[in-house]
Amino acid sequence: MAIAGDANLRCFPQPNPVDAVRWLPTVSSLRRFAAVAVHDPDSSSSAIEVHALNPGPNLLLRSSHAIPSRISALRFSPTPQKPLLAAAATSAGSLHLLSIDPLEGSIDSELSVGDIGFSTGAVADVDGQAEGREWVSVGEDGRVNLVVVGDGRLEWRRVFDSKGLVEYSAVRWASPAEFATGGLGFGLQWWDQRKPGGAVAHFKGNWARGNTVGMVHSIDIHPSRKHICVAGASSGTVFAWDLRWQHRPLLLSGVSTGDTVQPASESEVWEVRYDSHIQPSSVGTGPTRILPVMMCSEDGILAVLQQGEEPVELLAEPCAINGFDIDPQNPSDVICALEWEMIGILPRSKETSTAS
């Protein structure tokens, strides 16, 4: 594995475990904020905190909003706007939509949905459309729900219910009508709201070693290549699924039947994101070209994967990296949630943008 050698990680110890971190979409170049999902095991309480990134950098808590149960996923609507909309899913089966002032970092209001008809288990993931008016959520109970911001309330409808036969753990919009989901058995599904009744495409492939049942933990879809989904899963597996060749997924990290790629990790890959900071290498050109992908893992690895190249290790921590986010306005900056009750910020140098 290639080593980037970037020793600029700045760690900020926190009083409680950090479950998720996200950069706030920037509407002003003078102010930068990060949202953090925290959990206090002593009081069994959870909250969304907004921290300001000050020169140095330093993190300064600007606001905090209590959430009634542990937060399982945290997402922002991708388009910078005022106010910003953030969705927090919980392990108790509720979904909370927060309105955040992007200039002050204050959390101004909340809408929520959590009735028993919405979910009978943890809401594993949620993702929002560009303007934040429409969200899709998936759960461990096999339910896929569409949530729409109405007049002072959240309205929702069931897209699909597997009756517990399928467990979903990740979801991502691809277009205003299409989204992808991932879950048990390294499975991926493609949904089109113009074609109701269930997923329109499926991928099933257990790449786990031995008798372990693999799980897709995270997926991402690039805005310019909406037909390609990348997935992070068990046993260090990261792969790309192209709708044009649905039965020939491309392995970026890990081991599969008849195919081996140097793994960046041998444990659970908790999150994957396309990395716009890295310039794609010349390897893997053509219609199946996969853009650079960043991943983090249970064994403390943060790395960049490129098709046909060795993984580039950015961090190797003594604890799990449970999640990360790449600043969409400043993609050289990465924020991480470290298992040892810390937030890490990694500013990358210009040299790493051309690493291969």
Automatic annotation (TrEMBL):
Superkingdom is Eukaryota
Membrane spanning stretches: none
- Which InterPro entries did the record assign? WD40/YVTN_repeat-like_dom_sf, WD40_repeat_dom_sf
Signal peptide feature range: none
- Nucleus as UniProt keyword: yes
Keywords annotated in UniProt: Nucleus, Repeat, WD repeat
GO cellular component, as recorded: nuclear pore outer ring
Q: Which SUPFAM superfamilies match?
A: WD40 repeat-like (SSF50978)
Task: Provide the protein's localization.
Answer: Nucleus
Xref: PANTHER family: NUCLEOPORIN NUP43 (PTHR22652:SF0)
Q: What's the protein here called?
A: Nuclear pore complex protein NUP43
